[in-house]
Amino acid sequence: MKVALLQNENADSVRKWEIACIKRGLDYDIINLTSSNWLEKIAEKPYDFFLLRPPGSIAHYKSLYDERIYVLAKVLQLRVYPAYEECYIYENKRLLSYFLKARNIPHPTTHVLYSKNEARYFAENANYPLVGKTAIGASGSGVKIIINKRDAYRYIQSAFSSKGIKRRFGPNRVTGSPKKWTTKAINDPSFFWRKLKSYLYSHKYGQKDFLILQEYVPHEFEWRAVKIGESYFAHKKIKTGDKASGSKGIEYVNPSPEILDFTRLLCEANNFNFMAIDFFEDGNGGFLVNELQTIFGHVQDHILEMDGNPGRFLYKDNQWVFERGNFNTNESYDLRLETAINLYKRGL
Fold it and tell me: Which domain holds residue 340?
């Protein structure tokens, strides 16, 4: 079996895939998908499948990656994991809002506005608070709580200005640790300069000429549920400040069958095999999807505990079965690779 890891603009972007391949003894090459000869490189060898790492910080690199994966998956009919559809909606909150609405997936009411006049009319008649979001931006970057009409007018003015809506510069200062940042910078100066370049780029390119405004859902936490192949996980993301998005605080709880069923049915209906779902409880026994992310990280060694034991859930014979163990090694990329191999063997 021969696979290719498709690197984005970040030279370290496929490192976790690489570690997983090495641990499994799998033959692999790394191909820079941002290079001009990307298609020639892909054609050089008969790769069985391709492992993807779409970017989530800079919009034009995200567009580049999406376009080239479209050619591989849809034009050339090559096998890619995660699937093209999973990658396309990743870190594109504008597209995600259309997708959720079109698929009748419950979610906070979201408005994508391309007209300044339409946006001002909306702001005049809206219920506050609102959530302003940039189309791209992970770990809470680009998320702003808009508390009143005056705040909304300023936000609209920024969106339709020459600078656009700026995202956070630098790492998450609410949940991050300056001590850890400093230690990383000292131990690996190249890491510091790569991250600085990334922050400068993402801050430089403000979101212009449209904006995303979303209904604010009062919450103290949101659920993070994950499906990787046949494995299911879930925990609570605890709110830090005024939002749970970007929070690294988690609470391990025993997920109810309703949480697991919601995750399973949503993923099965949309052919998702690599997906993290962030969702709120709506107060009426239902759920509202806030994010769908095929690429997600976790600072914890595992992302589910059942009665204090790490593990995963499997759906067998129409019931949920808990299996103890740590299935999230290497930030879950070991399990991702196992899933990709199983899908390939099944012709999926």
Answer: 221-345
Task: State whether 142 and 205 are in the same domain.
Answer: yes
Regarding whether 198 and 261 lie in a shared domain, the answer is no
Is 87 among the domain residues?
Answer: no
Q: Which among 174, 193, 215 is the end of a domain?
A: 215
Q: What is the 3-state secondary structure (H, E, C) of the chain?
A: CEEEEEECCCCCCCHHHHHHHHHHCCEEEEEECCCCCHHHHHHCCCCCEEEECCCCCCHHHHHHHHHHHHHHHHHCCCCEECCHHHHHCCCCHHHHHHHHHHCCCCCCCEEEECCHHHHHHHHHHCCCCEEEECCCCCCCCCEEEECCHHHHHHHHHHHCCCCCECCCCCCCCCCCCHHHHHHHHHHCHHHHHHHHHHHHHHHHCCECCCEEEEECCCCCEEEEEEEECCEEEEEEEECECCECCCCCCEECCCCCHHHHHHHHHHHHHCCCCEEEEEEEECCCCCEEEEEEECCCCCCCCCCCEECCEEEEEEEECCEEEEEECCCCHHHHHHHHHHHHHHHHHCCC
Mean pLDDT of 122-128: 95
Span 211-267, pLDDT tens digits: 999 999 998 999 999 999 999 999 999 976 554 454 457 999 999 999 999 999 999
Claim to verify: residue 118 and residue 64 sit in the same structural domain: no
Chain segment 162-178, per-residue pLDDT in tens: 888 886 555 555 545 56
**Is residue 45 in a domain?**
yes
